[in-house]
Design brief:
Blueprint lengths: L10 E6 L4 E4 L3 E8 L4 E8 L5 E3 L7 E8 L5 E11 L4 E11 L8 H28 L10 H4 L23
Length: about 170
């Protein structure tokens, strides 16, 4: 009888930021997916050799999705290391390098707000056009359509001729 032994640590896939990619700063969001058949016991995240921070995961779950916003990381190159340990005490880690570049606008999100506003206006215009097209294409209701009687042209009336006048009664002669 063979017993399968899992001697591998958790599988970690850092999904954002892209490896060697650029992130518009000043903040960066790190997302990752972690999987382990034996259950995940702990996850840590480390940025640029600073102290690792513990991330919250459901202990014993076989999968976890991580999303952590790194505030004010500063421009330049950065390294993120995510380490995970399974319930058997076996660890694994994944590392990613990325670069933070200066954000568009003045850094307070005006460019993002403009993009969202333009997108919203576009969706509203598209919705209005769609409604108008649907209204134009829908069949008319029976009340709006003329009936067969109304559709027939009326017969032209004969011109009325005045009736001839009756002769006036003659006065009696005496």
């Amino acid at each position: 009888m063979m017993i399968a032994v899992d001697n591998m640590g958790p599988e970690i896939e850092i999904t954002a930021p892209a490896a060697d990619g650029e992130v518009v700063g000043p903040d960066a969001t790190v997302t990752a997916a972690i999987y382990d058949n034996n259950g995940i016991a702990a996850v840590t995240l480390k940025v640029d050799n600073e102290d690792a921070m513990d991330l919250t995961v459901t202990a014993g779950s076989v999968a976890a999705a991580i999303s952590e916003v790194l505030e004010d990381v500063g421009e330049g190159e950065h390294t993120v290391v995510i380490a995970a340990t399974d319930s058997l005490g076996i660890s694994n880690q994944a590392t990613i390098d990325f670069t933070v570049v200066e954000g568009a606008g003045d850094g307070d999100g005006e460019a993002d707000m403009l993009a969202w506003a333009l997108a919203a206006i576009g969706w509203i215009v598209a919705a209005i056009v769609l409604v108008l097209l649907v209204m134009k294409m829908r069949p008319k209701k029976a009340a709006e359509m003329p009936s067969e009687m109304e559709m027939e042209e009326p017969e032209p009336e004969e011109p009325m001729m005045p009736e001839p006048e009756a002769p006036a009664p003659e006065e009696e002669k005496m």
